[in-house]
Specification:
The protein is an alpha/beta fold and about 260 residues long. It has a single domain (about 10-250), classed as Alpha-Beta Barrel (TIM Barrel). Helix content is about 35%, strand content about 15%. Strands 1, 2, 3, 4, 5, 6, 7 and 8 form an 8-stranded mixed sheet that branches. α1 (about 25-35) runs parallel beside α3 (about 100-105). The longest helix has 12 residues, at about 125-135. The two termini are about 15 Å apart.
């Protein structure tokens, strides 16, 4: 995982392909791969029974027909919820997948798998997540990312070679996060796109320092072009098909 160098673009499906299927579900992950995204990203929390599951929010109301917090429900209870009807009746009865189920779907992806850990209930949860990735045989091309650096340090303590990445959504954290990444190779920095676009000088400095950069969530091609010009070539997007087509035809190629 080297520095960005203006080479081919890595298009990363954000929660799969959420424009065509409900986010963080098996149909969404499948759709991202079908659209040509070499890499995919999804969110992970841990259920009451200790099973890692793929869902973004702390509670299930926004993306399922259920109620309650993810950490208070078992994986079986989560699987029984309808996580698709809110998006379209075509996806009625789509389940909240376990991490193991998601990994089975994306293991055929040619690129990198970005597993964002939203929260853990206890230190052992980090080990459960790493265990699932290792069991799927994709540890070598998975990056465990999180907004919480303490979780990433728990993950790194399990294996010094695991790739990790700090997701940053606050401008004030950028300098600290950059230093953190440089001290924990192999690691990357994953800032919100506007934090890079609004400070081109800092972005170019991070690239020059060899800090691997991923960014989210870029759905506008003009923003994607500006980022690539600054040396940022790992782009997470909701508009998977459009971004893949642009990268192939006009963006400098697709990884």
């Amino acid at each position: 995982m080297g520095a960005d160098d203006g080479g081919p673009i890595e298009v990363i499906g954000h929660r799969g392909a959420p424009r065509v299927a409900p986010e963080n579900t098996l149909p969404s992950l499948t759709a991202a791969l079908a659209a040509g995204a070499p890499s995919v990203e999804w969110d992970v929390r841990v259920s009451r029974c200790g099973t890692p599951v793929v869902i973004h929010d702390a509670s299930v109301e926004r993306t399922t027909d259920g109620e309650g917090r993810v950490e208070d429900l078992t994986a079986r209870e989560l699987a029984d919820l309808d996580a698709g009807s809110w998006f379209s009746t075509r996806f009625t009865s789509t389940a909240v997948p376990t991490l193991a189920e998601a990994l089975e779907v994306v293991r055929g992806a040619p690129g990198i798998l970005y597993c964002e850990v939203k929260a853990v209930r206890e230190p052992d949860d980090a080990g459960r997540i790493v265990q699932e990735v290792r069991k799927a045989g994709v540890l070598g091309r998975t990056v465990i990312i999180s907004l919480v650096p303490e979780i990433l340090d728990q993950v790194r303590a399990l294996d010094p070679e695991i790739r990790i990445g700090w997701v940053v959504d606050e401008n004030d954290a950028m300098e600290e996060a950059g230093a953190w990444v440089r001290s924990r190779s192999p690691a990357l920095l994953d800032p919100r796109a506007d934090l890079l676009l609004n400070d081109p000088e800092r972005t170019r400095r991070l690239v020059a320092q060899g800090v691997p950069l991923v960014t989210w969530t870029v759905d506008d091609l003009s923003q994607a072009r500006a980022l690539v010009q600054m040396g940022v070539t790992r782009i997470t997007t909701n508009e998977v098909s459009e971004m893949v087509a642009w990268a192939r035809d006009d963006g400098g190629g697709l990884r």
